[in-house]
Known about the structure:
Blueprint: E1 26-34, E2 45-52, H1 61-69, H2 83-95, E3 106-110, E4 114-120, H3 124-143, H4 149-161, H5 168-179, E5 184-187, E6 192-195, E7 202-205, E8 208-209, H6 214-219, H7 223-232, E9 240-243, H8 246-256, E10 260-264, E11 274-277, H9 280-289, E12 295-299, E13 304-311, E14 314-322, E15 325-327, H10 334-342, H11 362-370, E16 384-386, E17 398-401, H12 408-419, E18 425-432, E19 444-451, H13 456-459, H14 469-478, E20 488-491, H15 496-509, E21 515-519, E22 522-525, E23 528-530, H16 536-545, E24 551-555, H17 558-563, E25 571-577, H18 585-588, E26 590-600, E27 603-608, E28 611-616, H19 623-636
Parallel strand pairs: 20-24, 20-25, 21-24, 25-26
Antiparallel strand pairs: 1-2, 2-4, 3-4, 5-6, 6-7, 7-8, 9-12, 10-11, 10-12, 13-14, 13-18, 14-17, 15-16, 18-19, 21-22, 22-23, 26-27, 27-28
Helix pairs in contact: 2-3, 3-4, 5-14, 15-19
Amino acid sequence: MPETPGSEEEGAVPARRLNARPTDAFDLGNLTFYPGPSPYLERRALVFDLILTGDPPPQPVARYAEAVARFYPRFAGAGLPDHAHLFAAMVAELGRLDIGLELHRWQVHPRGRYDRIAVQALDRSTQHQVVYAAWDWLEAIGSGAPFDPGARMAELQAEFNRSPYGGPTTYALLAAADRRGIPTRYLRDEGLIQYGYGRRQVRGVSTTFSTDSQLDSDFTTRKDDCKAFLARRGFPVPRGEVVTRLEGALAAARELGWPVAVKPLGGHKGIGVTANVRDSDELAAAFARAGGQDVIVETSLSGSDFRLLCVNGRFVAALERRPPWVEGDGISTLDQLIGRENARPERADSPTSPLGKILRDEAMIACIEQQGYTRQSIPAAGAVVRLRKVANLSAGGVSIDVTPRVHVDNQILAQEVARHLRLTCLGIDVIAEDLGRSWKEGGLGIIEINAAPGVFMHVRPALGGGVDVPGAILDTWFSQGRPARIPIFVFNALGPEAIREIVDLVLSRFPHWHLGAVCPSGVFINRSERPMHPDYLTNVENLLRDPGIDLLLVAYDEATLERDGMAHEGHDMVVLDKQSPTEEILARDLRPGGTLIKLTGRDVLIRRQGLVEEFTLDPEDRFGRVFLREVALIIGGMG
């Protein structure tokens, strides 16, 4: 990362502004996104230089902090020592957005005339906007110009929602992985999240993973075939048939008997579903809502809507889903009541809010009209108005955790269904009068099964306690005794000859292993040289992505660390030979129990598992023999 020009002389005013406007008290430069640890922070971060322009001079730190505290009370009396720490703290606070992203690390590196600031980040684009929002806010405080933190936060939240990390299920999985020390990264070309490294990795999007059967996942989208599959195995499902025309839907409804449920053959998330259809007029509207072709008409079951969730074939959670409703006050119209309900913080419709916005659509209008209302009606005080027939959470439905009261027979039923499909996660939607009563007594029907179900509603339901479903998912691959990482050995200097020696040593113990190695001279898998990408970090990332790699060797010199940082978090052995101060940060990221080997002149220091050994090399000794001995000790302890 280059130094900010024109800023080296202590106390001097920069000869030119980098990005500041003529009226700005602050200037920013060298915004650099590091996808992994760097000399400036041990996590992925956005790093930038902050300069005080001197014209105009900045306000006192306490005045800025007092103004920010009106929106973020924790800034009141925070005791921040200078403008750089104020700026860094603001970027970190804004970067957590309104959803409490678990991004807490930041650091200020004084550079004399300017400060280099590193703030932990997740999405590159969002974090850039966060930095500029903090800058604009401080300039507005200093000049007295208007600034709306709430509106700016809404823009930042929208930017994050569009990112690969913005989905509630994806973020819940990432947060759970972080708490468990499982490394993650986004594979941009594939649109997937990678959990773990090398042969211990798994990749996925939402709750679909590389270990899942694509055949089984596709099968769950064929709703009519799934129903026949379940019925053949004795599972309780409602009678129904697939129709392509309205006339066929009417004939099916008369044969089944009113009321019926209508839904698209290939639907998901409750879109286009209408329950409790009671006559031909309602059926015509429901048929159109379901797409007007390839529509399922089936017996409408009585009871509540539940989702049973299985992970790796085991029942883990259950949720009741209720359609949204409002209660009249005798004064407000339905539109006004819905507007107030949608304004509740719980309905922020963010990746971590328990409730979504209530949709004002055709289905809602049809539902309230059947109850004798219009959007401009004023319900009596205490009158409860249902806003939908279907408990669609994405349209404003309410989620209620009911995991503790599910009858054991119903838990076994869910597991028996999941056992037939090779899927990490399976959502089983049922209608039941009472989940606390066995399905064998009647009163329960399986409506459909869903691969890749959303899980955040289980983590943070609108009502009831949450269930750590993301943790249960990650335990599928990374439970006790099954690490997410492969061994990683890093060096500040490494060449092909040393790589070959290490490869030969490791293969003598594990002949079926594949060792990946990256150094300035090339990329290797075992002794075979592979094509090298011009971007150095891409070569490391490619080997971390390779599901056949058992151990990784990487060289990071000073230039690479300053320019790119590292591609991974944590390593098991660090070998430093005539290291620079920047290269010393490799020792900072050594994992607990790891081994550090450092050569200074002819003096060697070895620190392993809390023990320290120091000695001087004999003139005929070679440093390579030292770290080869340590490699032998490390792999000797591996199974």
